[in-house]
Q: What sequence folds into this?
C-alpha cells in the first residue's frame, strides 16, 4: 500500500512523545477497527521516539509470533524507514534489527508471545522501551514480563490491538484505567486510514457479522453471543449433485467418548465444497470404535480420490500415528486456534466460499446448534454440537494458509 498522507490520529500516535500536552504519559494505547492504519503509524512512531531519545539502547517489538510480527509489522516498517533515510541492518536468524539515523544506533529485538511459556523468552533483558502489537492475543504473563523489563529511565510502553471481549484483562486493566496508568488512549476507525478506499471499506463490511463486525469494522469491545455462524443459510450454502474438483482434502475432529467428524472437501473455482462426511457418535450408536475402525471409515470416505492431505485435531496423537502407519495419506496437524478459526470460517461463509452437500446432514444440523457460551466471560463456544464445526474450522484455517503460501488471494484478517 502506497502511503501519501497520514490522518490526525496517525500523526498523534507517531508524535505524542514530543507533544508537551502528553509529557506526563508513560504509555500509548491504540485500538480499533482492522485496516485503520494504527499498526504502521505506531511502529514508525516507536522507532522515531527510540532514535530521538536514545543511542545504544535496547528495545523490543513483540507480536503473537515472530513470524506474524515479521509479516505484519517488521517488513512494512523497515520498508518505510529505508525510504526516510534510516539505515537498517537486520539479523533475521538472531531476531533483531539495528536501526540508525544521524549517528543514533539502537537495537530492536523481536519476541513472540503465543502462550504462557513465552514469558521466559523475554526474562533477563533490560529494555528502554517495548512495543506490543496485538497485545490482546498475548497471555498476561508475557505482557507483564515485557513491561517489567522496561527499567531504563525514560522508557515508554506502546500497545496496539483490535478489540476483543469486554471482559479481557487488558481492556479492564489498561484501557479502562488509562488515566490511572498514565497512558494516552487513541481509538481508531477505518476512516482514520487515508490510504483505505471506500471500496475496501465496503469489502470489510461484507466480511464480518455479529460480534466480529462490531469489533473489526466498528472497533467496539463487544461480547460474543447467540449462534456462532448466523450468516449460514441452507438456501445459499447447501447444494445437491456432484462437483468436479481440482483437488481434495479431508479434515478430522477425532473423538472416543465424543463424536468423530470427518469431512471430504473438494476445491473448485475458488470455492470449497464439503462433498461427503463421516460422523460417528458412540453415545448415539451404543458402541465405541477403535483407531483402526475410524481409519477404515476414513478410507471409505476418500474412496478412489487422490487426497492432498488429511488435517487432524492435534490432540488426536494415536489416530495421527494410525494414519501415518498405513502410509496412504499425508497427515498434518490442524491449527486449533478457536476464535481465529471461527473468524476465518465466518468470513468464508459471508463470501460464499463454503458449500455443503445436502447429504452432509450432521454439519448442517450443528450450524443451528453451535452457540457462544455467554456465561463464560470470554470468547468460548458451548462445547456441545461442535464436532463437525471443529473439523470445518481445521479445514478452513489450513486452506487459508495454503492459499497464502501459494500466493492466492486469501481472506484478510489483518489490521
A:
Amino acid at each position: 500500500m502506497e502511503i501519501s498522507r497520514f490522518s490526525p490520529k496517525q500523526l498523534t500516535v507517531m508524535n505524542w512523545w514530543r507533544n508537551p500536552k502528553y509529557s506526563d504519559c508513560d504509555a500509548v494505547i491504540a485500538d480499533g477497527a482492522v485496516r485503520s492504519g494504527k499498526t504502521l503509524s505506531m511502529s514508525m512512531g516507536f522507532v522515531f521516539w527510540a532514535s530521538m531519545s536514545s543511542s545504544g539502547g535496547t528495545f523490543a517489538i513483540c507480536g503473537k509470533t515472530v513470524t506474524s510480527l515479521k509479516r505484519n509489522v517488521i517488513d512494512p516498517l523497515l520498508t518505510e524507514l529505508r525510504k526516510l533515510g534510516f539505515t537498517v541492518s537486520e539479523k533475521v536468524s538472531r531476531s533483531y534489527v539495528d536501526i540508525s539515523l544521524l549517528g543514533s544506533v539502537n537495537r530492536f529485538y523481536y519476541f513472540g508471545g503465543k502462550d504462557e511459556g513465552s514469558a521466559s523468552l523475554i526474562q533477563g533483558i533490560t529494555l528502554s522501551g517495548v512495543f506490543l502489537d496485538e497485545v490482546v492475543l498475548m497471555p498476561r504473563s508475557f505482557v507483564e514480563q515485557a513491561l517489567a523489563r522496561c527499567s531504563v529511565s525514560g522508557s515508554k510502553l506502546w500497545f496496539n490491538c483490535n478489540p476483543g471481549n469486554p471482559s479481557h484483562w487488558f481492556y479492564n486493566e489498561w484501557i479502562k484505567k488509562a488515566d490511572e496508568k498514565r497512558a494516552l488512549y487513541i481509538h481508531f476507525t477505518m476512516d482514520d486510514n487515508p490510504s483505505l478506499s471506500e471500496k475496501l471499506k465496503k469489502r470489510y463490511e461484507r466480511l464480518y457479522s455479529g460480534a466480529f463486525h462490531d469489533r473489526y469494522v466498528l472497533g467496539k469491545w463487544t461480547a460474543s453471543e447467540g449462534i456462532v455462524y448466523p450468516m449460514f443459510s441452507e438456501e445459499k450454502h447447501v447444494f445437491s449433485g456432484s462437483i468436479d474438483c481440482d483437488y481434495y482434502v479431508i479434515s478430522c475432529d477425532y473423538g472416543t467418548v465424543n463424536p468423530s467428524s470427518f469431512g471430504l472437501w473438494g476445491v473448485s473455482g475458488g470455492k470449497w465444497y464439503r462433498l461427503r462426511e463421516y460422523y460417528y457418535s458412540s453415545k448415539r450408536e451404543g458402541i465405541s470404535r477403535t483407531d483402526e475402525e475410524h481409519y477404515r471409515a476414513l478410507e471409505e470416505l476418500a474412496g478412489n480420490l487422490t487426497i492432498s492431505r488429511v488435517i487432524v485435531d492435534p490432540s488426536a496423537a494415536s489416530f495421527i500415528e494410525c494414519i501415518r502407519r498405513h502410509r496412504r495419506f499425508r497427515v498434518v496437524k490442524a491449527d486449533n486456534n478457536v476464535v481465529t478459526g471461527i473468524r476465518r470460517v465466518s468470513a468464508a461463509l459471508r463470501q460464499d466460499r463454503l458449500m455443503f452437500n445436502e447429504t452432509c446432514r450432521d454439519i448442517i444440523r450443528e450450524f443451528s446448534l453451535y452457540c457462544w457460551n455467554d456465561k463464560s466471560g470470554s470468547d468460548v463456544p458451548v462445547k456441545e454440537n461442535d464436532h463437525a464445526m471443529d473439523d470445518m474450522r481445521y479445514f478452513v484455517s489450513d486452506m487459508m494458509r495454503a492459499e497464502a503460501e501459494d500466493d492466492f488471494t486469501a481472506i484478510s484478517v489483518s489490521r
The longest helix spans residues 387-405.
